[in-house]
Structures are given as C-alpha cells and as structure tokens.
Write a structure and sequence with these properties.
This protein is an alpha/beta fold. The chain is built from nine helices and seven strands, in the order H-H-H-H-E-H-E-H-E-E-H-E-H-H-E-E. The protein has a seven-stranded mixed β-sheet with strand order 3-2-1-4-5-7-6, with helices on both faces. The mean pLDDT is about 85.
Length: about 260
C-alpha cells in the first residue's frame, strides 16, 4: 500500500515538475535566447560580434561558418594592416562566398558599398542578407564581371584565383581594370601549392573540388606574378598570409 502511494506521489511530482518547466521556465528561456539573438551589438560589441549579428537569422551552417571563419582565418587581422586607406567608398568582391569578408569591410568602412558576385545562388542569397542595404550581390562568376554604377576603390579576390585558368585569370584582371577608380587597388589572396609535409586540409579541399567536378589551377608565386604583369598590373606589395607558406597576399595597381 505504502509502495503504491509512493509511486503515485512520485509520478505526480514528476508531472508537476514537467508542467512547471513547460509553462513557466521554458517560455522564459526562449524569450531570453531570442532577446540575446536579436540584440544589436552595434553599441557595445567588437567588430566580430557585429559581423556575427548579421548572420543571426541564417541557418546553423552559415552561422558556424561565419564564426569559425572569423576565429581561425588569419585573413582579418592581416587585412587591417593591408587596408591602410580610410577613403574606401565602393568595393567589388569577386567570389564573395557567404559574404564574411564583405561584412568585415563594411564594419571597417561603414559608408562603403559592396558589389559582389558568386556563381552559387545559395551563397549569394546568404551574402545578400548579411550585407543588407549596403550593397548588391549578383549570381555571376569571373571572368564575367558585371558593370558597377561607378568606379570602385578596391577589388577583393580572396582565395579564388585557383578556380580560374590562366586565360580566365588574365581576362578577369583586365576587365577589373576597367571598373577600378584612379587610385583603386586589387587585393588578392592566392593559394599556392603546399610545400610542407602532410597538407591534409589542402588535400581534403582538393579532393572535395575534384569530386564536385571543379578544376583547380594552383600556381607558384612566379606564375601568378607573370600573369599579373602581363595583364597590365604592377605588384605594390606581396606578403605571406598565415604561417604555413601556402597563402600569399598581392596588392595590385594598374600600370600607368
């Protein structure tokens, strides 16, 4: 008899606890999480927080991609020293992906406008939502460079030139020279063939592209330099990116 009463009390207690959680605690938790998710960090957040806030309503993969991109890629700390100019009003982002670098530029240059292209419509959709009214992203791929409303101060080509063969890369650079302003520059980060042992990440990326039927054209420094010079550009600066030696920055100026 006592055992049966104990079971009834236990079940009743569990039921009341469950009801308390569902109708009292859970709504407050959801309200708190939604409030934090939609809290604008513009006033008190750092640039990374403000960039991540742009992706708050995206899918889980896109939010994680933006977070890990900002945390793990040396690109953003290096760009700070590369972009010394404060007079950047219009930017073309060739191969913008999910738009994380474009958002970084907009946080650094709030008055800028970004014109981006990417051949993947899904990435274009995400990038468009992330940059909002501060630009326009189109479905297109180099060397098909859409016209911009006016000259741009900077072009970004980040980790994409290995998707272009020599003729495509040369044509892309020549077409970009047309939309560059008088003091405009092209910022390129190129992926070189790895010289270190066991480049597992590089091989995984290479095999993933191969499985998707995507041809890659990895070049050494001298080969990239030759194409750049032949396309009518001078190399203002070149510098390594990261510590492995498989990424390099180029800042290009149209030869006068």
């Amino acid at each position: 008899m006592f055992s049966a009463c104990l079971k009834i009390v236990s079940v009743a207690g569990l039921g009341l606890t469950l009801l308390l959680f569902i109708f009292v605690i859970l709504p407050q938790m959801v309200e708190y999480l939604l409030r934090k998710r939609n809290e604008d960090p513009t006033e008190n957040g750092n640039p990374s927080d403000r960039i991540l806030w742009r992706y708050r309503n995206m899918g889980a993969y896109q939010r994680l991609f933006a977070r890990f991109k900002l945390q793990l890629d040396p690109m953003f700390s290096e760009l700070s020293s590369l972009l010394s100019s404060s007079d950047i009003r219009a930017v073309a982002d060739i191969g913008c992906g999910y738009g994380v670098p474009a958002c970084w530029v907009l946080e650094r240059f709030p008055d800028a406008i970004v014109y981006g292209i990417d051949p993947d419509p899904k990435r274009v959709s995400v990038a468009s939502r992330a940059i909002g009214i501060s630009g326009f992203i189109a479905v297109a791929g180099a060397p098909n460079i859409p016209k911009t409303p006016g000259p741009v101060d900077m072009v970004m080509m980040l980790d994409i030139i290995h998707f272009l063969d020599d003729d495509q890369l040369s044509l892309t650079l020549k077409r970009l020279s047309v939309i560059l302003g008088q003091k405009g520059r092209i910022i390129v980060r190129a992926t070189l063939p790895p010289a270190y042992q066991f480049p597992w990440v590089w091989w995984m990326e290479y095999l993933r592209n191969k499985a998707a039927g995507i041809q890659c054209y990895y070049r050494i420094y001298d080969e990239i330099e030759a194409i750049v010079l032949q396309a009518g550009f001078d190399i203002e600066l070149s510098a390594p990116s990261g510590s492995k030696g498989d990424l390099v920055w180029f800042i290009l100026n149209v030869r006068k």
